[in-house]
Amino acid sequence: MMKANKKMRKNMIKKASMTALAATLSLSAALPAFAATLDFSGESNTGHSYNVYQIFTGKFEEVEGNKELKEMYYGVDAKAYVAGEEKRVDSAVITELEGVSGKTTAEILKVVEAYAEIDGSSFQTAKAGDVLTDIPDGYYLIEDAEAPSNGDSFTTYVVKVVGGTIKVTPKTDKPGFDKQVLDNEKDDVTE
Predict the structure, then answer these.
(1) How far is CA 162 from CA 32, 36, 59, in A?
(2) Res 22 pLDDT > 50
(3) Largest alpha-carbon pair distance within the chain?
(4) Using CA atoms, how far apart are residues 71 and 90, in angstroms rounded to an integer?
(5) At the N or C end, where does the chain have fewer CB atoms within 10 A?
(6) 156 vs 158: CA distance, rounded Å
(7) Which tens digits make up the pLDDT trace of 157-181?
């Protein structure tokens, strides 16, 4: 009788362990993976089509309440990308890329073209109204695939993606000029 009780207890412990394991696995499956959404659905995107180039990918980490990318690797549109290999990106490269914020299109492209193959065959494409889901965390170049049909300026962004939804809106300012006429009269200056 004693052996039967030990065996029953052992079976009960196994069942309880399996139930706990199953509950843990189902809970972890219910937690969302940290991937982002790029939303091109805004009305201002009318007349635009975009190429989305994956420059670098990274692993998301929350540090003191801030979303950060760690362990950066070259993305599929990077010049240094090799299929099947994870090649780490030097932190100086990331610092240089982060420095393009607020720069002109020419300045952005000068930095990005050193690392990315910008040849029209991009990681993703989008047009007005599209919502791209399951975008891996990382750095992306988003640019107009062609001149916007509505006369807007050409849009080029470097975007850091760390989960959540990023609304992509085009640059809508148009280049212009202000014609000024200078007066060549010399002012009489007396001292």
Answers:
(1) 13, 7, 9
(2) no
(3) 123
(4) 10
(5) C
(6) 7
(7) 888 888 888 888 876 665 565 666 6
